[in-house]
Write a structure and sequence with these properties.
The chain has 330 residues and is an alpha/beta fold. Helices cover 34% and strands 31% of the residues. The strands form two sheets. The protein has a nine-stranded mixed β-sheet with strand order 14-13-12-11-7-10-9-8-15, with helices on one face. The chain has a six-stranded parallel β-sheet with strand order 3-2-1-4-5-6, sandwiched between helices.
């Protein structure tokens, strides 16, 4: 089987812990090179048996033996290196959030399209089939008409000093880091876009980033929704959907990989409670999907337009935080 030759821009923790092993498990992809400006590329290449290492991102992008790049850089660098990669004819899998604004993401998507390379934002959670199963249950009418959805993603951040997650200049903050998942899930599961948002946040006076955010979104189809995200609450990565006849809880929504890939769906109705368990390798599914899109000159299931819209909602949430007002998106 033909394989896409991937390059990794940076030796970031997420690349080493999750993505490089996923590339190794994928049938249609291989990590052909890794680049780092910190001098760690050679060591990391040896650790993962990667054929090439580069001391600069530019050197990797100029290599004709690299077909595509995965970008796990700090949020504020996503736009710069996506554009650079596209300019060198490399396809792009870019970590979430795609950028810091909807306009930046639009520029990235349009430039990749102009250069005839594929672009996908790396929301790995959506490749777990538990979410499609949730949509099937909703469509079946088992929980009645959907009225409300809540999504939460929080954890206790151990290291604050010197962490890019707490650096406002690098796109830090809980909303950018994990709130983006909750917003994406609400849009993804309800199949609707927000028409207005109202968000409150706890802002750290020293780090000047949102340590927690609590938001309300009115969806275009009439569904009400809440989300919360945090760096200083217990770990939760879940959502629930409430209908007129029952509810669906998904307690492992965003990190089923913490449970060896096992997703869990709990359906509660007047007739009782049942559980459905589905196992999947979300990082491998993500890698194989975008690699197959590249090989077949297809279109990612998660489109650039969808990524732009998610950033548009995040941007509106920050506008609401800073202004204290309800922000309308229509």
């Amino acid at each position: 089987m033909k394989k896409v030759r991937w390059g990794i821009l940076s030796t970031a923790k997420i690349a080493q812990k999750s993505l490089i092993p996923a590339f190794e498990r994928a049938q249609n992809a291989v990590v052909a090179g890794i680049a780092s400006g910190s001098g760690k590329a050679e060591e990391t290449a040896a650790q993962f048996n990667i054929a090439k290492s580069y001391t600069s991102y530019e050197d990797m992008l100029q290599d004709p033996e690299i077909d595509a790049v995965y970008i796990p850089l700090p949020n504020h660098l996503h736009k710069k290196w996506t554009l650079e990669a596209a300019n060198h004819g490399k396809h792009v899998l870019c970590e979430k959030p795609a950028s810091l604004t909807a306009d930046e993401t639009k520029e990235m998507v349009e430039y990749c399209r102009e250069k005839k390379v594929k672009f996908m934002e790396a929301f790995m959670y959506q490749f777990h089939p538990q979410h499609e199963r949730v949509r099937e249950i909703i469509k079946s009418g088992e929980i009645g008409e959907v009225k409300f959805m809540r999504a939460s993603f929080s954890f206790s951040l151990a290291q604050w000093e010197g962490n890019i997650k707490t650096d406002p200049e690098k796109g830090g903050g809980s909303l950018y880091d994990v709130g983006c998942y909750a917003i994406h899930a609400i849009r993804n599961i309800t199949g609707a876009e927000p028409v207005e948002v109202h968000v409150h946040a706890n802002m750290d006076p020293d780090y000047r980033v949102d340590t927690s955010a609590f938001g309300y979104m009115q969806m275009e189809n009439g569904v009400h929704s809440h989300f919360d995200c945090s760096f200083d609450m217990a770990f939760r990565a879940e959502y629930e959907v409430i209908g007129t006849a029952g509810q669906i809880k998904v307690p492992r929504a965003f990190r089923p990989d913490n449970h060896e890939g096992e997703g869990l769906i709990i359906v509660q109705t007047e007739t009782g409670t049942r559980e459905e368990r589905i196992v999947a390798d979300i990082y491998r599914e993500e890698v194989e999907h975008i690699s197959q899109v590249i090989l077949e000159d297809g279109v990612p299931s998660y489109t650039g337009e969808n990524a732009i819209q998610n950033m548009r909602v995040i941007e509106a949430c920050y506008e609401s935080i800073h202004s204290g007002k309800i922000i309308k998106l229509v």
